Amino acid sequence: MSKQSTTQQRQVWLIFFCLGIIMLNFPFMQIFNRLDTLFGLPLLVFYLLVGWPLSIVVIYLFSASLQDKGLPHRDSNPDRELE
Amino acid sequence: MSVQFLGIITLCYFLLLFAVAFLADNLRQRGKSFVTNGTVYSLSLAVYCTSWTYYGSVGRAATSGLDFLTIYLGPTLICFTWWFLLRKIILITKEQNIVSIADFIASRYGKSTYLGGIVTIFAVLGIVPYIALQLKAISQTFNMLCGSDNNLTASFQLQFPNLPLDTAFLAALFLATFCILFGAMKLNSTERHEGLMAVVALESIIKLCAFLAVGAFVTYGMFEGFGDLFSRFITSFPEKSDLLLISAQHNSSGRWFTMTVLSMMAVMFLPRQFHAMVIENSDHEHIRRAMWAFPAYMFLLNLFVLPIAIAGILTYSGDTTLADYYVLSLPLLEHQKLLAIFVFIGGFSAAGGMVMLESVASATMILNNLIMPIILRFNLKTTDISGLLLNIKRAAIVSVIFLGYFYYRTLGETEALVNIGLISFMAATQFAPALLGGIYWERATQRGAAAGLLSGFVVWFYTLLVPTFVDAGWLSDQILQHGPFGLEWLRPTALFYLNSLDILSHALFWTLFFNIGLFLAISILTTPSSVEATQALRFVRVSTWRDIPQKRTRISKAPTIMEFVDLMTKFIGEKQANMAIASYLGDREIDEKGSLSEYEIPNLKRFTEKTLAGSVGAAAARIIIENYLSARGSKMEDVFNIFGTVSLSRDASREQLGVLYESANMIASGADLDTIFDNILELLYHQFRFDLCAIRLYDEDSNLLKVRNFKGIDTEFLSHADREINESTCIGSAYVNNRVILANDSDCTDKPASMEIIRREGIKSFAHAPITIEGQPIGVLSSYSRYAKGIYTEEFIELYKNLAAQIGIAWRNARQTSQLIEVSEQEKELKIAEAIQLSLLPDTMPSQPGVDIAGICVPAKQIGGDYFDFINKQPLLDVIIADVSGHNIGAALLMAEVRTFIQAQARQLSTPPDVLHVLNRFMYEDLTNAELFITMFYLQYDPVRGQIAYANAGHNPPLLLHHETGTFEELDAEGMILGITQEMVFEEKQTFFQPGDILVLYTDGIIEAESNAMQMYGIERLKAVIHENRELTAQEIIDNTMNDARMFQGRRHFNDDVTMIVLKINS
């Protein structure tokens, strides 16, 4: 994987990370902070029950897209590599 | 349910855990590990979900609503960064053999002992209450199950009546045994504990299944699903509907954010999390699975938290005093004993996993960062203290667990335990600035980190623990209301009058404010030490630091390999030490003395330190190595950067090229040898700041290496001293063995003679390189330094050898030039000789009526030995042709002598034999001395009578072509070569010329002309060409003959001098 695509990946990640923090915090969550129900669930509970798995799916898709970067994995003999 | 029954079940579960751990360890030894994969790794991270969350989440949901979720949402969010952040931390950890979070921070900031100590103390302070909480959960749930189903409160008092033991003690005992067996089998903490991790992963599965089971039972067994629960709740407890919202009161939004941040940091930096996530990681690729599997696990675990909480509220009619144990009490209420036992086992798993990992991680930190520095101070003389260290580690595990137990026994029933989970989270958060700053900011310094950590913890203690103590009743409420000593602005929950935040947000703000603030400020104000700077580089640029030019070091009085092994043996045991060194040496080059090269030793030192760090931590390892080296008088020295400001490695080659280029320029300058030598020495002397540079060349006459040139200190022992060709001195040795001899530390010279000189002159390091021509030594290039040891790096020696080779080239060039000059001067002299010689031959042919005469002499080299002449004795004409053997100057001189004699004497002598006779007598001595001889044909022509008289001294008989008959007559007469004896008699013969006759006199050069086929031109060819050209003039006959001979031999130049005279009698 080229250095450029790594940087790009990192940026995409950072955006998702920030997006996650915003969407799972105030004031964004105030949108759902009502006593209405949806499918019998309180709106906020419903939002979290959907939003949370969604973010996990995003991580899953990302990690599936990751490629091996040729770094040493299992350091069977890390010392040799170091020195 | 009887105590015995539950006890047996618990024991069985324990045995199962033992079996799994044992199996995992066993399989690992056989190389069939089932622990090293992404799934088990992800499950082991779930040790994050302790009994505090297992039971406590429901309690929190029932009392304060949805904010329990933040404890899991934070980790989910931080998972987004793992591929970059966690992977970097893992890479660094593997590179540095790091064994704990304290070790990580200490190692980053110059392997600082006190920083490791600070982190350890605070980590343990934060952990012990947390462990107490787990023990409390185990004990309470156990007692709950054994107690009366209807009287939950009474069950808390249940104890073992006949034993001074309680459930918590037994649990602590079992857990401690387990940890010692599977967490402290070996000292090397970098070696992963697969048995332990297998158990933690299994426990994670069990606690998830148990929780899902009870959740499903409550939601679908006791009620009719989510919708039913929520609708009933909203109708029955409209006043509690806030639980389903994030209420606008009490700064809920701020608290939500605070808890998200806290849990993000906690999941990374709680010691057990760091241990499971980083230290026990076997392959950073596992992160890829853990990134989604771990959040997914947390999601599943929390799916039923809110339903259970609501079910509890509905079931207990709004009574939330025992909400923390709804998970257990609801199935008990419904008489689902098996489910309740399953839930208890799940809770036990949640608590047990946490206690085990936390205690192992803490024990490692305590041993490495608190005990080791003390042990090292005592400097034990025992050869192997690895056993002792292992026992200390075991003792530390037991201590941590039992500290938790005693904490619980003393304070278990007070309020001090309630919020301990979040307080621990806050403590872990304090590690974040130093740790994250450390891996992304090179400028972060040890003092900055220490100031940040200390201030963070002081504020943490003050803003979080002090209020807890007040709640527990240990401190007066006064301090919260009016501040200590009545200082209002110092109130722990409203520091500096900041009273609009909840206690957690308030603490988070102020701890991080001081922590980050001081960390940044002091880091900027202080300068990192060299160790710190090196470590900073290795952390921040973990994947690229090897490409960065490193400052090279050497060790004076370096220990040998065996000494390093002995040192390792002391701390990690003989077997491990031998294994480590074997893996290190591997295919490394070992020199003739069985040791590593000078520049390899610092690497071995680093390796030893790293190996030790794997067992005792980076800070202690550093102290061990430093103490050891200083005790034996060894010192780490920076290798003096001989290439000046340019750093070593890549740039050095550029500098090398520069120097070589300059010296090559000097050699090409065409200056004389001494100037070139002086300039090269000057270059060496100034560029590398030596104190003396000298060139010694071998002198054949004296059989010594004589100083030819030098630059620098002028002493009779170095700059003026010649050296013998033997191995008694380093210079002699360099010459004899034709290899570079260098001493980076002149104290280590093994030649007494050299040693004495070096001592007297105060030389610290020196090097001698043989000056060679085509591989053969002709001298030695020496350089000496009085001020620096260890300046001769491999790069420099390479350059030095090249310089010596260039000096050899300069010397050869100079020698060849002088030879050329010699040759060219000789050549000039030869040219003069040739000119003189040619001037001795007649330049014009005598004009004799009736005779056409032509002659030619072509010397093979510049000077020749052929000679012809005419002497006009009116009316007679004498014709002489001669050949002096040889083509050298001597021959030419003799020829000149002959000519002088003939020109002077021939007129007085009447007949040819007389001339030859007298000439022989005159020349005899000179010819004998010169070991030369002369052949000569002397002919006298009388045009009046048409008669010729002649005598021959061994010369080729001339050819006479008779016009009438067309036949050749060879004119020969008795006579020997001149110079054989002093007295010789020559025969005179006579014959007559007829008109049209042609007489050809020649020397052997023409008939001996050789073709490419090695054939001689021969007399027959000569005759043929003369006959062919008989009608032409004498000159034309000569020209054509010469051309024919040239055509025959295929070359323009003849091998021998060629001389011809043609006389043609006009008809």
Q: What's the helix count of chain B?
A: 39
Spatial order of strands in the largest sheet of chain B? 5-4-3-8-7-6
> What's the pLDDT, averaged over the residues of chain A?
73
What Rg of chain A, in angstroms, do the CA atoms define? Answer: 20 Å
The portion of residues forming beta strands of chain A comes to: under 5%
Oligomer: heterodimer
Strand residue percentage of chain B = 5-15%
- From the alpha-carbon coordinates, what is the Rg of chain B to the nearest angstrom? 55 Å
What does the largest sheet of chain A look like?
2 strands, antiparallel
Pairing-aware structural class of the strands and helices of chain A? mainly alpha
Number of helices of chain A: 3
Q: Count the strands of chain A?
A: 2
Uncertain stretches of chain A: 70-83
Summarize the structure.
The complex is a heterodimer of chains A (83) and B (1067). Chain A is mostly helical.
Describe the structure.
- The complex is a heterodimer of chains A (83) and B (1067).
- Chain A has 83 residues and is mostly helical.
- Chain A contains three helices and two strands; from the N terminus they run αββαα.
- In chain A, strands 1-2 form a two-stranded antiparallel ribbon.
- The two termini of chain A are 25 Å apart.
- Residues 70-83 of chain A have low confidence and may be disordered.
- Chain B is α+β, with helices and mostly antiparallel strands and 1067 residues long.
- Chain B has five domains: 3-24 and 41-64 and 127-242 and 288-413, no CATH class; 430-548, no CATH class; 555-628, no CATH class; 650-817, 2-Layer Sandwich (Beta-Lactamase), CATH 3.30.450.40; 841-1065, Phosphatase 2c, domain 1.
- In chain B, the strands form four sheets. Chain B has a six-stranded antiparallel beta sheet, with helices on both faces. Chain B has a five-stranded antiparallel beta sheet with strand order 9-18-17-14-15.
- In chain B, α8 (113-146) runs antiparallel to α20 (420-429).
- Chain B is rod-shaped and about 175 Å long.
- At the A-B interface, α1, β2, α2 and α3 of A face α5, α6, α12, α13 and α15 of B.
